Amino acid sequence: MCLILLAYECHPAYRLILAANRDEFFARPTAPAAFWDTDPHVLAGRDLQEGGTWLGMTRGGRFAALTNYRDPSSYRQERPSRGRLVSDFLRGNMPTAAYLDMLRSKGDDYNGFNLIFGTTEGFCYFSNRVNLPSGITPRIHGLSNRLLDTPWPKVSRGKEALARLIASGSAIVDDDLFVILADRTLAPDHQLPDTGVGIERERLLSPLFIISPAYGTRSSTIILIDRNNRVTFTERTFNGGVETPRTATFRFRIASRSPHS
Asked: DSSP assignment of 19-80, as one string?
């Protein structure tokens, strides 16, 4: 993932409203969101190159989503795939606190990452760039390729749009959230971060929805969890071409008792 917007305990009808974009090279093989044949309780897309994923949920209410921390000077090719951190949490039954302890002890084995994970009982944020875990508090949050709520232009713009939607009092529908994620507005140069990739690439990466010939937004995902633990999970996939995007929606109620909860 390269952008995660979430409203936690901010709406009378929903415990969680999440809207996220995954940006990736179009050549990287990817499977769209589905319940996995190997782990039928896991709903997620799949990185077919490394086997992990960037975002997913389980029928038992486990959730995890990851963004890379952009720092090309520290990147090492030989380190393990960060997407396995998401899939390992979803596939297993390790409590959130125990998984956090594992991240504290082994997080430095990976290239820079941010991970939001947990269950409907509560979500946690961890980055191996600061090693200061924190709970996700009841408000609107945004995460891109720095730390949680770092005010990059795309993060601030997305959080403001989500706040306006919630404040409007209108029913929350997928299309309104997809409109937010589809924002292709370039940030002005004076607002761009300096992450070591050069001004041209900073400019390219500055919109919520990224477009370029070889790299860009591959999928947009909406997750709604209501007060009765009913989940609506909608993914819209893109491949950088002119074909019509594919949209798939999954609905289920979080199991009250599950070996994978």
From this structure: EEEEEEETTS-EEEEEE-SSSTTEEEEEETTTS--SEEEETTS-EEEEEE---GGG--TTSP
